[in-house]
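Technical annex, item 7. During the second reporting period the consortium partners agreed on a shared format for inverse folding records so that results from different sites could be compared directly. Each record opens with the tokenized structure and is followed by the designed sequence. A conforming record, contributed by the partner at site C, is shown below for reference.
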């Protein structure tokens, strides 16, 4: 900015400093800082690089500029540069370092065949197929579900099945590119990249949570895409009304289109994924029963089995799989799981064990559990007390002493504690 002192000792820095204090820093950095500014004949002249910038500043900041300029007895004039003799500004949209959409291959109508669909996910898959076609009755699709349920794979299917010009990015990439655009003052290049498409896809919008300036840019982007008749697709790990870190406007915007949920792979889907990867049927059946519904975990198991077969030159049977996947199939029990298992065995509820009741039956059960945890784990006495309802160190010491005293005369107690220890291991 060029500062020209006036006879009233008013300069550009003082006026712009007052203006910067009135608006958010992101807006000032993106729109006001790149302008050519001077003060001449009691008029604050703001010269924008193009008409879009001038119109936006007049619409969004015009009144604020006039009010602040009036405090300095100045008028405001917002104009567009008349020639190209100015030094190139970062907001001139001349340099663009953002990745352009890669040329799409020929449309693959069978792209969704690779997605193994359970009954619960049929509606979500049908919605994705519809938006990938050119005759969908809705322009926005919001897909949500837990990690490993196949959200990103559905986005791959949409991209492969449509013949539209698609811009796809993750929420983290949007945040990083927007921040870089502000830093390098290439904000218009970033805006052009996101808007010059037929379909905009963002994977994991949760990455925008709590980022006010980025969320404002994202909100404007989606509204511009809607106004232009473009299609948008989002994914998240929860429904729009359960998202944290977003204001009501964005949550309302997310919920304004078609919202569908995707559930984690069930045993049938896990088995089918393993069989399609060439895993032996017996092994696939057994593994599908023992692992949880996380598609990422299934893919990791497939990679491990295939790599073992390639390197060792032998087909993986169940004996090999049990040894190879011991870290997945034989998960170690947590102390909390141990206590709950012992509660079931001793016919007492977990809430009673963690409660304050001092009946003889519950006191005896707590003491046995503490002794079993001491014998089966390397937990400290404080940790044992915490998992047994938040008991302190002294309580655990007393319980273990009582058990040791009773074991000398009660053989049934010895056998019961041994059983509890076996349950914990």
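Designed sequence (site C submission):
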């Amino acid at each position: 900015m060029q500062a020209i002192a006036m006879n009233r000792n008013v300069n550009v820095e003082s006026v712009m400093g007052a203006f910067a204090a009135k608006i958010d820093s992101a807006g000032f950095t993106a729109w006001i800082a790149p302008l050519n500014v001077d003060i001449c004949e009691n008029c604050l002249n703001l010269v924008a690089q193009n008409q879009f910038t001038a119109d936006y500043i007049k619409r969004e900041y015009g009144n604020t500029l006039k009010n602040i300029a009036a405090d300095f007895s100045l008028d405001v004039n917002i104009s567009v540069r008349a020639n190209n003799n100015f030094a190139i500004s970062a907001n001139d949209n001349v340099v663009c370092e953002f990745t352009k959409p890669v040329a799409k291959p020929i449309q693959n109508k069978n792209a969704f065949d690779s997605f193994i669909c359970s009954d619960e996910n049929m509606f979500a898959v049908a919605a994705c197929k519809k938006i990938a076609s050119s005759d969908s009755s809705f322009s926005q699709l919001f897909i949500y579900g837990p990690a490993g349920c196949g959200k990103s794979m559905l986005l791959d299917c949409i991209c492969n099945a449509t013949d539209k010009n698609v811009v796809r990015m993750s929420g983290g990439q949007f945040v990083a590119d927007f921040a870089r655009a502000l830093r390098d003052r290439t904000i218009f290049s970033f805006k052009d990249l996101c808007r010059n498409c037929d379909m905009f896809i963002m994977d994991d919008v949760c990455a925008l949570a709590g980022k006010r300036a980025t969320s404002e840019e994202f909100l404007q982007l989606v509204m511009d895409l809607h106004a232009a008749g473009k299609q948008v697709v989002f994914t998240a790990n929860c429904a729009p009304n359960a998202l944290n870190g977003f204001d009501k406007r964005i949550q309302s915007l997310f919920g304004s289109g078609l919202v569908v949920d995707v559930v984690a792979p069930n045993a049938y889907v896990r088995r089918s994924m393993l069989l399609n990867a060439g895993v032996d049927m017996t092994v696939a059946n057994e593994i599908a029963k023992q692992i949880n519904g996380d598609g990422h975990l299934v893919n990791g198991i497939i990679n491990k089995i295939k790599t073992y077969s390639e390197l060792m030159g032998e087909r993986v049977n169940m004996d090999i799989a049990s040894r190879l996947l011991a870290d997945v199939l034989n998960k170690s029990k947590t102390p909390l799981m141990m206590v709950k298992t012992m509660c079931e065995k001793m016919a007492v509820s977990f809430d009673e064990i963690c409660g304050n009741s001092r009946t003889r039956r519950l006191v005896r059960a707590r003491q046995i559990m503490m002794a079993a945890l001491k014998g089966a784990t390397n937990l400290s006495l404080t940790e044992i007390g915490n998992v047994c309802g938040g008991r302190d160190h002294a309580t655990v010491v007393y319980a273990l002493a009582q058990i040791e005293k009773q074991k000398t005369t009660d053989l049934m107690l010895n056998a019961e504690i041994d059983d509890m220890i076996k349950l914990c291991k």
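The chain has a mean pLDDT of 84. Residues 335-424 form a domain with the Chromosomal Replication Initiator Protein Dnaa; Chain: A; fold (CATH 1.10.1750.10). All partners now use this format for quarterly exchanges.
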